[in-house]
Amino acid sequence: MRNKKSKSNQQWNYDNISLWKIRPADTGRQYVKNGGGAVIRSFILAFVVFVFCILTTAEAHLPISFNTFDDQNFLHSDMGTDDLGEYYKTAESSGIPEILIKPEWPPSVWQEDIKRPEEVYLGDELNLGPVLGPEELYSAVDEVEYQWYRDGKPLEGATGKSLIINGVTKDDLGSYFVMAYTDADTLLAQSRRVLVWRSDPPVFRYEVPGKPAENYQSLQDKILESVSEHADNVLELGRDRWSGKDTPLFADGLNLATWEPAIWRHNGNEYYISNFASQQNLMRTLVALSRLAGDEQYKQAAMDATAYMFDHHQYESGLLPWGGHRFLDLKTLDDVYGFDSNSHELKRHFPYYDLMFDVDKESATQLVRGFWESHIYDWSNEFYHNRHGRWVDRVPEDIWDRPFSDPDAHQMIDRGTMVHTSNDLMYAAAHSFRHNPEQEQGALQWAERKGGLWYKARNPKVGLGSYHYHLGHNPNSGWGSHMPPPQNVPGRVDAPYEWSDLFERLGEDPASYGTGAASAVGSTRFWATTGWPGVIYADATIAQLRMAELLGEEHGTNFMYWAHTALRAFAESDAYNPETNTINRMLTNGRVLEPDFTTAGLRFFYTFSIGYRMTQDEALWPVARGVARAHELGEIGPSPGVAVKLNLTTSNAEPEAMLSFLELYQALEEPAYLEMAVKIAENILEQKFHKKHRFQSGAYGFFVRSKEHTHVCFDDPEPFALLSLVAVLRGEPDLLPLYANGRSYIHGRYDGEGRTYDHRVIWSQTK
User: Fold this and answer.
1) Residues 495-529: pLDDT tens digits?
2) For residues 329-336, average pLDDT
3) How many Cα atoms sit within 13 Å of 148 on the Cβ side?
4) Which of 164, 236, 372, 530 shows its CA 20 to 30 Å from the CA of 137?
5) C-alpha R_g of the chain
6) Residue 475 pLDDT exceeds 50
7) CA–CA separation, 359 vs 382, rounded Å?
8) Do the beta carbons of residue 387 and residue 578 sit within 8 Å?
9) Which of 524, 495, 488 is CA-nearest to residue 416?
10) CA–CA gap between residue 254 and residue 70 (Å, rounded)
11) Distance between CA 484 and CA 520 in Å, rounded?
C-alpha cells in the first residue's frame, strides 16, 4: 500500500493493478463498504462521478494526468500503470468509498516485446493455466467468467480458468485462446497465444528429400541454355544504351519490334522506364543463374546495377526513386514523377534485399529505415501508416527507440491503414535484422509489433482478417464520406469489431450505405473487390512464411504463427468453396454477403502449398486441392499424397503452378508432384521462350508471355521459376534467392488511358 497525503487530515490510498485503458462506461461505478448512511453515499456518488469524468475525458492510452483538485484531493500528473488501480478515501466519520477502475481491452500480448506462442505437439499434455496476465488484474473483481476457444469456436464445457487435455490427439489440433468477463459482462482480457501443431514441428528451412533421378539431366541442360540466352540478351540489349553514360542500369523491358525500352507516356513526354523495384525478379534470376551455371558475370551485373542505384540515386533519407509512382528515365537518368501522387510506394513488391545488403550493407540499412520513416505517419499513438510514403529529408538515428502504444484496431482516423504496405515494411525490417542482428534489433521488434497489430485486428471468434487496421472517415477525402460515424449509427456496439457485429445484427450489407462506405470500411467486410482476398491471404501470408524461413525458429516463430492461423481461418471458414473454387464476399465474423464472389487464382495454390509444407497441417489441404483442380492440374489427392492423379497433358505454363508442385514434392516426397513440375517447365519453354530477330543480324531468345506480345518484361518470373526446378533437381535449393512472389508495377496517368498500370498499357499489349 502506498499513500499520498492531502492538505487535510483525510488520506487517499490505492492498490496497484494493471490498467491499459479507462472505460467510459464505468464512469460513476462505485462500491461502498461498511455503510455510511444515505447522505454520505450521495456525497460519495457525486464525488466518484466527478473523479471518473475527469479520468475518462482522456480517450487515449497512458499516461493520463489528473487535474489539480481542492483541499480534499491530491495532485498527481502523468499517471502510469503503476499508479492506476483501486482508489478509496478514508475519513474519521465515514466508511470507505471504493473506486474500481477496470481495464477495457488489454492487448493479446502482455509485454511490449511480442513473445513466441506456446507450442504443443501430438501426444503431449495441453495444460493452459492462467495465461491472462497479472493475477492482480482480477483481485478486486467479485466474479470472472471464462470461455475457452479452439480455432475461434467455443469449447463446450471449457469455462474454467485453466484448460487441461491429457494427451493431445488429432482432434485437438488448432489455435487456442480464452476470454474472461466480469459479472457485468465487461471484457477483462483475452489471450490467443497457444498453438497446437502436428507431431512434427514447423519447417523453417527449405529441404529437399534427396537428389532426384538423373533422367532429368537433359531438361536441366535445356533450361540453363534457354535462361542463359535470355540473360545474355538482357545484358546486351536491356542495359543502358541511351543515356550516353554507359551505366549498368537496366530497362524494365524492351519493345520487340524496335529493341527500344518500354515507354511511359505522360503529358506528351516519353520516358524510357528503369524502375529498380520492377527489376527484383530479374536480379534474383541473374544471381541464381550464376550459382547454378557457374558464370559470375550475371551476378556481377546485378550487383553493379544495385551499387549504381545506391551510389548515384539514393536520397539522404535512404529512399530510392522506385516503386509504384516513381522511376528513372534511361534517356536522361532523371527521376520521373508527377504522373501520380509523387509518393514513395512499395506495395507487395518484396524486393531482393539480400543482394542489396551483400552489395552495400550501410546503404541497404538506410533504405529500410527510410522506408519505415517515410510510411509511418504516427509512431506513438495510432501507429498509422499509409501505402503512400512521404519523401522525408532524413531519418533519426534513434528511429527504433520510439515508444509503442499498441493501439486498438479499427479506430476512426482521417484515412484507413491498409494491409498492403504493412507486409513490405515487415519484410524489409526482417532482412535488416537478419543482416545486422545487433544494430537492427529494433527493426525486428517493430516488424513484430506491426504483425501483432494485424493479428489483433482479426475477428476474435472466426479469425478472419481485415483489409484495414484503422478506418478512414474523412468527409473531405471521399474515404468513408458516405459512412456515418459509429456513434451516429443506431444500435452500434462498443467493441473493436463493431462494424461486422453491427451489420450482422441489422441484417444489412454495408454496401447499402453507398460506395464510399463499401470502399472505406475494411473491417466491415472480409473483402470488397476481387483483389482483396489475394492481398490478405496470399501476398501477405507468403511474405510472412518467407520471413519465418529467413529468420529461422529462433526469431521467425511469430511470423510462422500469424501466417498459419490466417491460412487455417480462411480454410475452415465459409470463405472458400473448394468444389467451385470460388471465394465469398463476407463479413469478418463469417456471415456471407455474396456467395461465389470471385475465383481463387494460382497464387492461392502457391500460398497454401507453402503453408502445408511448413506446417504439415491437413486443414490447409482442401484449398490447395480445390485451386489445382479448377486450373485443370488434376487431383493432388483427397488427402496429402494419397490417390494422386495429376493431369500430365495440361497446357498450363504458369510459374506459380510449377513452384507450387515443387513445394508439395518437398513436403511429401511424392514423385508425381515433381513430374508435374517438370511438365509445366516444359510448357514454359515451349510456349514462352521465343526467338526474335534484330535487324536481320541474328535471332535473340527471350522469355515472352506469348508470340503475340509486343514487349518482353524482364521481371516476369518464368526464368527464375525454371532455375528453381533445376536447383531442386540437383538437390541444391539453398542456392536460390528468397522469393515471395512479389509483384511489380507502375501506377499513374498515361496519355490516352487516364490512370492505369504499366501491365495494362505495356506488358499485356499484343500485335
Assistant:
1) 333 444 444 444 455 555 444 344 334 333 444 34
2) 97
3) 24
4) 164
5) 29
6) no
7) 36
8) no
9) 524
10) 78
11) 11
Mean local confidence (pLDDT), 360-384: 92
Helix%, strand%, coil% for the chain, nearest 5: 40, 20, 45
Instruction: Compute the average pLDDT of residues 142-150.
Output: 76
Tell me whether residue 712 is exposed, middle or buried, using C-beta atoms within 10 angstroms of its C-beta: 0 to 12, 13 to 18, 19 or more. buried
Alpha carbon distance 191, 657 (integer Å):
38
CA distances from 746 to 275, 537, 752 (A): 8, 23, 16
Poorest-pLDDT segment among 39-43, 549-553, 616-620, 713-717: 39-43
Grid look-up 525454371 returns 722
The span from the CA of 116 to the CA of 711, in Å, is 47
Residue 285, SS3 per DSSP? helix
Distance of CA 564 to the CA centre of its chain: 12
User: Grid coordinates representing 692?
Assistant: 526474335
Question: Which cell numbers hold the place of 681?
Answer: 517447365
Closest CA to 132 of 17, 24, 31: 17
Dist CA 349 CA 352 (whole Å): 9
Place of cell 444515505: 38
Residue 587 burial class via C-beta count within 10 angstroms: exposed 0-12, middle 13-18, buried 19 and up: buried
How many CB atoms sit inside 10 A of residue 671's CB?
12
Cα angle value 32/34/39 (rounded, 5°): 65
Q: Which of 249, 386, 239 is nearest to 306 (CA)?
A: 249
Q: Tell me the three cell numbers of residue 699.
A: 535471332
Q: What is the Cα–Cα distance from 661 to 752, expressed in whole angstroms?
A: 42
The residue with cell 557457374 is 294
> Who contacts 731 (Cβ-Cβ below 8 Å, separation ≥6)?
208, 210, 211, 212
Number of other residues whose CB lies within 10 A of the CB of residue 426: 25
Per the document, the length of the chain is: 767
Adjacent-strand bridge partners of 594: 585
Angle at the Cα of 422 (from 420 to 425), degrees rounded to 5? 120
Query: What is d(CA 466, CA 475) in angstroms, rounded to the nearest whole number?
Result: 22
CB atoms within 10 A of CB 498: 17
**Residue 271: exposed, middle, or buried by beta-carbon count in 10 A (0-12, 13-18, 19+)?**
buried
For the chain, counts of helices (H) and of strands (E): 18, 31
Is-contact 582 629, C-beta < 8 A? no
Torsion angle (degrees, nearest 10) of CA 761, 764, 765, 767: 180
Distance CA 465, CA 419 (A): 10
What separation, in Å, do the N-terminal and C-terminal C-alpha atoms of the chain show?
Answer: 82
Residue 123 CB neighbours (<10 A): 9
> Do residues 433 and 443 lie in contact, with contact meaning Cβ atoms separated by under 8 Å?
yes
pTM of the model: 0.77
- Please state, in angstroms and as integers, the Cα–Cα distance from residue 278 to each residue in 234, 251, 346, following that order: 15, 10, 10
- Rounded CA separation 105/445 (Å): 22
Cβ neighbours of residue 272 closer than 8 Å, sequence gap 6 or more: 242, 251, 260, 261, 262, 263, 329, 330, 331
Quickly tell me which residue has 456467395 as its cell. 595
**Cell numbers at residue 90, please?**
478514508
Q: How far is CA 574 from CA 151, 380, 462, 577, in A?
A: 14, 37, 10, 7
Q: Which residues pair with 709 in a beta bridge?
A: 766
Strands 471-472 and 412-413: parallel
Residue 163 near residue 150 (C-beta atoms within 8 A): no
For residue 648, give Cα distances in angstroms to 66, 635, 668, 682, 683.
Answer: 73, 11, 19, 11, 11
Q: Alpha helices, DSSP H only, in 637-717?
A: 655-668, 671-688
Q: What is the pLDDT of residue 144?
A: 75
C-alpha to C-alpha distance for 698 and 681, rounded to whole angstroms: 26
- Most confident segment among 8-22, 275-289, 511-525: 275-289
Return the H-helix or E-strand segment holding 376: strand 376-378
